[in-house]
Amino acid sequence: MNNKKIMQGVWIGLITGIFLALFLKLVQAVMGNKVYTLLLNVDYIPIVKNYQFPEVIEVSFHLIISVILCIVLVLLLDKSTAFIRNRVMYFSFLINIAIGLLLYPTTLFSNRTPSFTDAVSLFWWIVGHALYGLLVGILLKKWLSKGTQC
User: What's the CA gap between 10 and 85, in Å, rounded?
Assistant: First the structure.
């Protein structure tokens, strides 16, 4: 494994993870939908759900997941075909919409998060993940266009 690739994934994960957190925090503050709370929610993880963490720790959990995801994307990009590399923005966009859709049902495990049937919260949740995926794709494409070999 190339340390440069790992560090690229770390930076992309931190930048985009902070963006997603701030976007969903803004949506929650302005619209009242608990999408930021959902982002930080760990009520579906055994043992961890028994603890109340400060916001900074919950954000750190989110950033760790974002960094891991972006490292995986960088490494997958390294092993991908030219077809995928040339469409990295679309690939990242679609993957992150899928992740958003897969994570939204975790609302069922908490009374602090939006209701599973809250269509407006689902909309903002998917918009946030779509923007996150687009930003990840833009940063990956920028990295590729600088001539960095994946």
Answer: 19
